[in-house]
Design a protein that fits this description.
Chain lengths: 250, 92
């Protein structure tokens, strides 16, 4: 028993998880998310690194990141900043280039995604050998905090339309808390052309097209940015445009 | 095949079948009952789908989990993190 446990440990240690954190003006949240990541990865024993991709934040996010690097080590906190805000897809490409792990975790740096789910993602991935594991707010005990009725209605409505039109085989397409095998993420980012919410949707749709397997883990999404209208008319219109584009082209 | 093409194909097939039965295009001499039932089918199915959609979305909104515990836990951990980082020398 002890012998086989030792063998399993070795295999686990051979896996390394690179967390990509694209940041823009996250001076307040970055230390907190890093602390949580260090806590949960530390407890789980998995090998990891955190790659901070700061897009020239004017609020000093990079300076905070440098302090964190001194505290936790530059093997654990890797800084790969860029000169200006260049978008998520290119941030992933940039991050992948410098990732030394064989798995990549993408997540938001604003604490809406909680690192406590990462060990669950990893466990799920190992269970099914999945090419990607997606955090879902819509199934199991997944959920949200801080959303009013309007936001919930729009979210569920949009998801329903997406399910009907695209039949994607995943319950949460606009979510951005995911674990990918590195080569899978590389291939998918190459092929995706959309922006914003639709980019995350396109990743899942293309993954299905290429025959990749997708696992799901329920997550809680804690929205702390109160009062900010993140789902205005413009966003809904561009979402629908993107959805119809995917409908017509995939 | 794109999803759009799948839908167009599906709708065409259903449309042709409906047209055949309703307007007796193949001169099959089907009983009148078939035609009577088939004729309003498209509208009927749309209405059924509409009701299903509303019911499903309504149900999902009503049962959308509110993660109170998660929010509380996060608040507590944020405080813990700030204290610990200050100890470790972080200047925020």
């Amino acid at each position: 028993m002890a012998g086989s446990r030792g063998g399993k440990r070795n295999r686990e240690e051979a896996d390394k998880y690179s967390v990509l954190l694209p940041t823009y003006n996250e001076r307040e949240n970055l230390p907190l998310i890093v602390w949580l990541l260090v806590k949960y990865f530390g407890e789980s024993g998995y090998n990891y690194e955190i790659i901070v991709i700061d897009d020239g934040s004017p609020d000093g996010t990079l300076q905070i990141a440098e302090q964190l690097q001194k505290i936790y080590g530059d093997d654990k906190i890797v800084l790969r900043p860029r000169a200006k805000k260049l978008g998520l897809g290119t941030a992933y490409i940039h991050g992948i280039k410098h990732a030394t792990g064989n798995f990549i975790i993408i997540m938001d740096a604003d604490l809406s995604h909680h690192p406590k789910f990462i060990p669950e993602f990893i466990k799920k991935q190992k269970e099914g050998g999945y090419d990607l594991v997606s955090g879902t707010r819509y199934r199991g005990d997944g959920g949200v905090y801080g959303w009013d009725l309007r936001r919930k209605l729009i979210s569920r409505g949009a998801n329903f339309v997406t399910q009907v039109l695209l039949r994607p085989g995943a319950s949460d397409l606009t979510g951005s808390f995911r674990l990918y095998k590195k080569d899978v993420l590389e291939r998918l980012v190459e092929r995706c052309v959309s922006k914003g919410y639709v980019f995350q949707m396109e990743m899942i749709v293309r993954a299905r097209q290429l025959g990749y397997t997708i696992g799901e883990v329920p997550i809680s999404f804690v929205d702390r940015v109160y009062g900010e209208s993140k789902l205005g008319g413009n966003e809904i219109v561009s979402f629908l445009k993107g959805l119809l584009t995917l409908f017509a082209t995939t | 095949m794109t999803k759009l093409l799948e839908w167009l194909l599906g709708v065409s097939l259903v449309g042709v079948a409906w047209g055949l039965v309703t307007f007796d295009l193949l001169d099959l001499q089907l009983p009148a009952a078939y035609k009577e039932v088939a004729w309003p089918m498209p509208v009927y199915l749309l209405v059924v789908f509409g009701c299903y959609s509303l019911a499903t979305i309504g149900y999902r909104v009503a049962t959308f989990n509110d993660c109170e515990e998660a929010a509380k836990e996060l608040q507590a951990q944020i405080q813990e993190a700030k204290d610990d980082l200050k100890k470790k020398g972080l200047k925020m």
